[in-house]
Amino acid sequence: MLVGATAFAIVGGVVGLGLGVIAYPPTAWFAVLEIGVPAGFLGGLLGLASGSIAWGIGRFGDTPA
To answer: What are the sequence ranges of the domains in the chain?
Structure first.
């Protein structure tokens, strides 16, 4: 979960910085937060979901039917 949140937040921050510089350079750093924070939450949710699936497969995948 932490890896996904960090990776998505970094990518979102870079994208936000790029868009902010294009749109209005004096407020570009606010675009980093406006795009980076939601991207971090999305990465955390995706990391939590994939980690839960992996844990479930590892926990219950070897039980006989």
So the answer is: 1-32
